[in-house]
Amino acid sequence: MKIIAVIPARYEASRFPAKLMQMLGEKTVITTTYQNVVETGLFDEVFVATDSEIIFNEITKNGGKAVMTGQHETGSDRIAEAVQNIDCDIVINVQGDEPFLKLEPLQQLIEVFHHDENQEISLASLKIKLHEKEEFENPNNVKVITDNNGFALYFSRSVIPFHREISYNVEYFKHIGVYAFRKHALIQFSKLEMKPLEIAEKIECIRYLEYGMKIKMIETNFIGVGIDTPEDLEKARNLLSN
Protein backbone atom coordinates (compact mmCIF):
# COMPACT_ATOMS: atom_id res chain seq x y z
CA MET A 1 0.00 0.00 0.00
CA LYS A 2 1.11 3.53 -0.70
CA ILE A 3 0.43 5.63 2.38
CA ILE A 4 0.50 9.43 2.42
CA ALA A 5 -0.26 12.11 5.00
CA VAL A 6 -2.19 15.27 4.19
CA ILE A 7 -2.44 18.25 6.53
CA PRO A 8 -5.49 20.44 5.82
CA ALA A 9 -4.57 24.05 6.57
CA ARG A 10 -6.99 26.96 6.58
CA TYR A 11 -5.63 30.46 7.20
CA GLU A 12 -8.85 32.06 8.46
CA ALA A 13 -9.70 30.07 11.59
CA SER A 14 -12.82 31.47 13.29
CA ARG A 15 -11.53 31.41 16.88
CA PHE A 16 -7.88 32.22 16.19
CA PRO A 17 -7.23 33.69 12.71
CA ALA A 18 -3.77 32.99 11.23
CA LYS A 19 -2.98 30.57 14.08
CA LEU A 20 -1.03 28.26 11.75
CA MET A 21 1.38 31.09 10.90
CA GLN A 22 2.14 31.91 14.54
CA MET A 23 5.67 31.24 15.69
CA LEU A 24 6.40 28.14 17.74
CA GLY A 25 10.04 28.48 18.66
CA GLU A 26 11.91 29.32 15.46
CA LYS A 27 9.24 27.90 13.11
CA THR A 28 5.58 28.53 12.39
CA VAL A 29 2.95 26.13 13.75
CA ILE A 30 2.20 24.68 10.31
CA THR A 31 5.88 24.15 9.45
CA THR A 32 6.47 22.48 12.82
CA THR A 33 3.52 20.14 12.20
CA TYR A 34 4.63 19.34 8.65
CA GLN A 35 8.23 18.57 9.57
CA ASN A 36 7.23 16.46 12.57
CA VAL A 37 4.97 14.32 10.35
CA VAL A 38 7.74 13.89 7.76
CA GLU A 39 10.20 12.88 10.49
CA THR A 40 8.01 9.97 11.63
CA GLY A 41 9.20 8.13 8.49
CA LEU A 42 5.78 6.46 8.15
CA PHE A 43 4.69 8.03 4.89
CA ASP A 44 5.65 7.81 1.24
CA GLU A 45 4.78 11.51 0.88
CA VAL A 46 3.46 14.34 3.08
CA PHE A 47 1.44 17.28 1.74
CA VAL A 48 -0.23 20.40 3.12
CA ALA A 49 -3.62 21.11 1.50
CA THR A 50 -4.58 24.77 1.73
CA ASP A 51 -6.62 27.53 0.15
CA SER A 52 -4.09 30.12 1.36
CA GLU A 53 -1.15 31.33 -0.71
CA ILE A 54 0.50 32.43 2.53
CA ILE A 55 0.50 28.88 3.92
CA PHE A 56 1.35 27.37 0.50
CA ASN A 57 4.42 29.62 0.23
CA GLU A 58 5.42 28.96 3.85
CA ILE A 59 5.58 25.21 3.24
CA THR A 60 7.23 25.27 -0.19
CA LYS A 61 9.91 27.80 0.78
CA ASN A 62 10.90 25.43 3.60
CA GLY A 63 11.26 22.50 1.20
CA GLY A 64 7.84 20.95 1.80
CA LYS A 65 5.04 19.88 -0.53
CA ALA A 66 1.75 21.76 -0.71
CA VAL A 67 -1.41 21.58 -2.81
CA MET A 68 -3.73 24.53 -3.43
CA THR A 69 -7.44 23.77 -3.05
CA GLY A 70 -10.70 25.64 -3.18
CA GLN A 71 -12.67 26.59 -0.09
CA HIS A 72 -14.37 23.74 1.77
CA GLU A 73 -16.71 23.16 4.69
CA THR A 74 -14.63 20.34 6.17
CA GLY A 75 -11.02 19.24 6.27
CA SER A 76 -11.97 15.91 4.70
CA ASP A 77 -13.50 17.66 1.70
CA ARG A 78 -10.31 19.70 1.31
CA ILE A 79 -8.14 16.56 1.46
CA ALA A 80 -10.37 14.78 -1.04
CA GLU A 81 -9.75 17.52 -3.59
CA ALA A 82 -6.02 17.50 -2.86
CA VAL A 83 -5.55 13.75 -3.41
CA GLN A 84 -7.68 13.40 -6.55
CA ASN A 85 -4.61 13.09 -8.77
CA ILE A 86 -2.17 11.64 -6.23
CA ASP A 87 -1.40 7.94 -6.50
CA CYS A 88 -2.05 6.42 -3.06
CA ASP A 89 -4.12 3.82 -1.20
CA ILE A 90 -4.35 5.21 2.34
CA VAL A 91 -4.55 8.87 3.33
CA ILE A 92 -3.80 10.01 6.88
CA ASN A 93 -5.34 13.33 7.89
CA VAL A 94 -3.18 15.15 10.42
CA GLN A 95 -4.55 18.40 11.86
CA GLY A 96 -2.37 21.41 11.11
CA ASP A 97 -2.86 22.78 14.62
CA GLU A 98 -1.59 19.56 16.31
CA PRO A 99 2.19 20.12 16.09
CA PHE A 100 3.18 17.43 18.61
CA LEU A 101 1.42 14.34 17.26
CA LYS A 102 3.33 11.21 18.23
CA LEU A 103 4.54 8.26 16.16
CA GLU A 104 2.60 5.49 17.94
CA PRO A 105 -1.00 6.60 17.25
CA LEU A 106 -0.17 7.09 13.57
CA GLN A 107 1.30 3.59 13.46
CA GLN A 108 -1.86 2.21 15.08
CA LEU A 109 -4.05 3.79 12.41
CA ILE A 110 -1.93 2.38 9.61
CA GLU A 111 -2.00 -1.11 11.16
CA VAL A 112 -5.80 -1.14 10.94
CA PHE A 113 -5.59 -1.39 7.15
CA HIS A 114 -2.84 -4.01 7.14
CA HIS A 115 -5.21 -6.30 9.07
CA ASP A 116 -8.38 -5.41 7.12
CA GLU A 117 -8.22 -8.31 4.68
CA ASN A 118 -11.80 -7.86 3.44
CA GLN A 119 -11.37 -4.09 3.04
CA GLU A 120 -14.56 -3.39 4.98
CA ILE A 121 -13.14 -0.40 6.88
CA SER A 122 -13.63 2.97 5.18
CA LEU A 123 -11.62 4.90 7.73
CA ALA A 124 -10.02 4.65 11.15
CA SER A 125 -9.71 7.27 13.85
CA LEU A 126 -8.60 7.76 17.46
CA LYS A 127 -10.37 8.01 20.80
CA ILE A 128 -9.15 8.75 24.31
CA LYS A 129 -10.83 8.02 27.64
CA LEU A 130 -12.37 10.94 29.53
CA HIS A 131 -12.36 11.01 33.33
CA GLU A 132 -13.92 14.27 34.52
CA LYS A 133 -17.58 15.26 34.40
CA GLU A 134 -16.80 18.66 32.91
CA GLU A 135 -14.98 16.86 30.08
CA PHE A 136 -18.04 14.70 29.25
CA GLU A 137 -20.35 17.71 29.32
CA ASN A 138 -18.16 20.05 27.28
CA PRO A 139 -19.73 20.28 23.78
CA ASN A 140 -16.29 21.08 22.33
CA ASN A 141 -15.31 17.51 23.20
CA VAL A 142 -16.87 15.22 20.60
CA LYS A 143 -17.81 11.94 22.29
CA VAL A 144 -17.92 8.57 20.52
CA ILE A 145 -19.55 5.25 21.33
CA THR A 146 -18.55 1.98 19.66
CA ASP A 147 -19.73 -1.60 19.29
CA ASN A 148 -17.89 -4.61 20.72
CA ASN A 149 -15.55 -4.70 17.72
CA GLY A 150 -14.50 -1.09 18.05
CA PHE A 151 -16.62 0.29 15.20
CA ALA A 152 -18.21 3.68 15.76
CA LEU A 153 -21.93 3.72 16.44
CA TYR A 154 -22.30 7.46 16.86
CA PHE A 155 -20.48 10.72 17.59
CA SER A 156 -22.02 13.59 19.53
CA ARG A 157 -21.33 16.84 21.32
CA SER A 158 -23.89 15.71 23.89
CA VAL A 159 -23.06 13.28 26.69
CA ILE A 160 -23.21 9.76 25.24
CA PRO A 161 -24.05 7.34 26.61
CA PHE A 162 -26.58 8.86 29.01
CA HIS A 163 -25.81 7.43 32.44
CA ARG A 164 -29.28 6.48 33.68
CA GLU A 165 -28.30 3.30 35.56
CA ILE A 166 -26.01 4.81 38.20
CA SER A 167 -25.09 1.41 39.69
CA TYR A 168 -23.28 0.58 36.45
CA ASN A 169 -19.91 2.14 35.60
CA VAL A 170 -19.91 3.89 32.21
CA GLU A 171 -16.82 4.88 30.24
CA TYR A 172 -16.71 8.00 28.10
CA PHE A 173 -14.43 8.55 25.13
CA LYS A 174 -13.42 11.69 23.26
CA HIS A 175 -12.92 11.53 19.52
CA ILE A 176 -9.53 12.83 18.39
CA GLY A 177 -9.77 14.20 14.86
CA VAL A 178 -6.91 12.27 13.29
CA TYR A 179 -8.23 10.10 10.45
CA ALA A 180 -6.90 7.38 8.19
CA PHE A 181 -8.96 6.95 4.99
CA ARG A 182 -9.06 4.56 2.12
CA LYS A 183 -8.65 6.92 -0.82
CA HIS A 184 -11.79 5.70 -2.61
CA ALA A 185 -13.88 6.18 0.57
CA LEU A 186 -12.54 9.71 0.98
CA ILE A 187 -13.38 10.62 -2.61
CA GLN A 188 -16.85 9.10 -2.17
CA PHE A 189 -17.34 11.10 1.05
CA SER A 190 -16.66 14.37 -0.73
CA LYS A 191 -19.43 13.66 -3.25
CA LEU A 192 -22.08 12.85 -0.64
CA GLU A 193 -24.63 15.40 0.46
CA MET A 194 -24.59 16.45 4.11
CA LYS A 195 -27.40 14.78 6.05
CA PRO A 196 -29.37 16.16 9.04
CA LEU A 197 -27.27 14.62 11.81
CA GLU A 198 -23.98 15.96 10.47
CA ILE A 199 -25.53 19.39 9.95
CA ALA A 200 -27.02 19.43 13.46
CA GLU A 201 -23.90 18.27 15.30
CA LYS A 202 -21.27 19.89 13.02
CA ILE A 203 -19.27 16.63 13.09
CA GLU A 204 -18.07 15.57 9.65
CA CYS A 205 -17.45 11.87 10.39
CA ILE A 206 -21.18 11.42 11.06
CA ARG A 207 -21.60 11.66 7.28
CA TYR A 208 -19.86 8.28 6.92
CA LEU A 209 -22.21 6.67 9.43
CA GLU A 210 -25.30 8.18 7.83
CA TYR A 211 -24.29 6.54 4.53
CA GLY A 212 -23.51 3.18 6.13
CA MET A 213 -19.71 3.26 6.05
CA LYS A 214 -17.61 1.65 8.80
CA ILE A 215 -15.29 3.63 11.07
CA LYS A 216 -12.79 1.70 13.20
CA MET A 217 -11.89 3.49 16.43
CA ILE A 218 -8.51 2.96 18.09
CA GLU A 219 -8.03 3.84 21.75
CA THR A 220 -4.93 5.87 22.50
CA ASN A 221 -3.33 7.58 25.49
CA PHE A 222 -1.98 10.37 23.32
CA ILE A 223 -2.85 13.83 24.58
CA GLY A 224 -1.94 16.44 22.02
CA VAL A 225 -1.83 20.20 22.20
CA GLY A 226 -4.44 21.42 19.75
CA ILE A 227 -3.97 25.13 19.09
CA ASP A 228 -7.42 26.69 18.95
CA THR A 229 -6.82 29.83 21.03
CA PRO A 230 -3.93 32.17 21.93
CA GLU A 231 -3.84 30.42 25.32
CA ASP A 232 -3.28 27.07 23.60
CA LEU A 233 -0.38 28.60 21.67
CA GLU A 234 1.26 29.65 24.93
CA LYS A 235 0.85 26.11 26.28
CA ALA A 236 2.50 24.74 23.13
CA ARG A 237 5.37 27.24 23.44
CA ASN A 238 5.91 26.23 27.07
CA LEU A 239 5.87 22.56 26.11
CA LEU A 240 8.43 23.16 23.38
CA SER A 241 10.74 25.14 25.68
CA ASN A 242 10.59 22.44 28.33
UniProtKB/TrEMBL annotation:
**Which is one GO molecular function term here?**
3-deoxy-manno-octulosonate cytidylyltransferase activity
Top-level class of the enzyme under EC nomenclature: transferase
Q: Name one GO biological process term.
A: lipopolysaccharide biosynthetic process
Instruction: State the SUPFAM superfamilies in the record.
Output: Nucleotide-diphospho-sugar transferases (SSF53448)
Q: Which reaction(s) does the protein catalyse, per the Swiss-Prot or TrEMBL entry?
A: 3-deoxy-alpha-D-manno-oct-2-ulosonate + CTP = CMP-3-deoxy-beta-D-manno-octulosonate + diphosphate
UniProt keyword Phosphoprotein present: no
Keywords, comma-separated and alphabetical? Cytoplasm, Lipopolysaccharide biosynthesis, Nucleotidyltransferase, Transferase
Q: Which GO terms describe its cellular component?
A: cytosol
Pathway assignment: Nucleotide-sugar biosynthesis; CMP-3-deoxy-D-manno-octulosonate biosynthesis; CMP-3-deoxy-D-manno-octulosonate from 3-deoxy-D-manno-octulosonate and CTP: step 1/1
State the compartments where it is located: Cytoplasm
Q: Which residues form the signal peptide?
A: none
* Main subcellular localisation: cytoplasm
Q: Which PANTHER family does this UniProt record tie to the protein?
A: 3-DEOXY-MANNO-OCTULOSONATE CYTIDYLYLTRANSFERASE (PTHR42866), 3-DEOXY-MANNO-OCTULOSONATE CYTIDYLYLTRANSFERASE, MITOCHONDRIAL (PTHR42866:SF2)
**HAMAP family per the UniProt record, alphabetical:** KdsB
Per the entry, what this protein does is:
Activates KDO (a required 8-carbon sugar) for incorporation into bacterial lipopolysaccharide in Gram-negative bacteria.
Similarity remark: Belongs to the KdsB family.
Name recorded for this polypeptide: 3-deoxy-manno-octulosonate cytidylyltransferase
**Organismal lineage:** Bacteria, Pseudomonadati, Bacteroidota, Flavobacteriia, Flavobacteriales
Q: Which gene encodes it?
A: kdsB
